[in-house]
Amino acid sequence: MSLAMLFAPDPAALLWRRSFPGETVQAAAARRFVAALLDGCDLLDDVLLATDEMVVNALRHTKSGSPGGTFTVEIGRREAAIVVGVRDEGGPTEPAVVDADEYAESGRGLRTISTLATGWGWFGNEQARTVTAVFGVSWVTAA
Ligand SMILES: Nc1ncnc2c1ncn2[C@@H]1O[C@H](COP(=O)(O)OP(=O)(O)O)[C@@H](O)[C@H]1O
Ligand SMILES: [Mg+2]
To answer: Would 71 disulfide with which of 7, 64, 109, 121, CB 3.0-4.6 Å?
Structure first.
């Protein structure tokens, strides 16, 4: 299962994918990758914030953040729909919105994504999971 399979039936859909070493500094590289591809998207800031939270989760909660680990960012674009996904190398937990205390410093990432995005979800297993967020966007410049 991958975003490519979800988008394959539509020949007009666009799909980009890039893998990164599983290091904290690569979160910035992942953001730049998304920003370059979605230039002109009205919700770019929201998409970047969601991407960042998913990348940090891949690094913190899965084997992607272990030595030699990697993560992969996928972007699907079909008309006014953008799907951004981060594929990790799996771990013992499953992505879930948690009840964070008002003053808690963690437990806000997926809640933020669930607020910003039209929808979010994940697929996969302990070997590899892809967390996805869907946005309905418009294009403020021709792209
Ligand atoms: N890619 C992932 N793989 C496995 N578990 C995840 C992943 N992303 C999030 N989780 C789980 O979902 C929980 C909530 O994630 P999040 O809202 O980002 O809070 P935080 O990362 O601060 O714990 C995490 O604590 C973790 O248990
Ligand atoms: Mg998090």
So the answer is: 64
Domains of the chain: 3-136 (3.30.565.10)
Ligand nearest to the CA of 131: 1
Whether pTM > 0.90 for this model: the answer is yes
Phi and psi at residue 115, in whole multiples of 5°?
-80, -40
Q: How far is the CA of 57 from the centre of ligand 1 (A)?
A: 6
Rounded to whole angstroms, the Cα distance separating 138 from 54 reads 23
Query: What confidence tens digit (pLDDT) does each residue in 76-100 have?
Result: 999 899 999 999 999 999 999 998 7
Task: Write down how long the chain is.
Answer: 143
CA distances, 140 to each of 15, 45, 50, 76 (Å): 20, 13, 20, 18
